[in-house]
Specification:
It contains 4 helices and 6 strands; from the N terminus they run H-H-E-E-E-H-E-E-E-H. It is of the alpha+beta class. The protein has a 6-stranded antiparallel β-sheet, with helices on both faces. Bound molecules: methionine sulfoxide.
Amino acid sequence: MRSSPARGDQPGENQVEDKGALFGELKNEAERILAGPGAAQQRLQAVCDLLCLRVGHYDWVGFYLVGSTEGVLELGPFHGKPTDHVSIPFGKGVCGRAAAERKTIIVQDVAGETNYLSCSPDVRAEIVIPLFRRDEIIGELDIDSHEISPFTQEDRELLEAISRAAEKIL
Ligand code: SME
């Protein structure tokens, strides 16, 4: 008689379980950093470092913040290669679209995206979560991946939870 497969024998099973456990830890750690001491910019930087270093499919993690010019996102703390896109008007690129549409945008393959600002040819997918103060857009959390279709509901939930915690210190 064949025994039923042991736990972890199914393709992707460990990966999914590991992702859930890792993301639970990262949510707690990011919330602890954001609620902790230090200047807001330093805390945002620590969150970028944490996410980029711990999640294999996050290759660039950064915050864009709305500064003195209304309707423009300015590059804030980030972890990854420097980008040319330091200032992005609402509506332009995936970042500008998330601000204009006021919602999380996930692009699972940037090759199919017409309104896109390329930071590096290595980037294949992107997720952007807008940050709010009451009704106003005050910035965004932006993540690039070198993999196609890397983002699941777990990524969205983790990053939206971190964004809600980041809004409180901005
Ligand atoms: N790809 C973004 C620009 C920002 S970089 O990813 C850091 C966009 O299309 O808005």
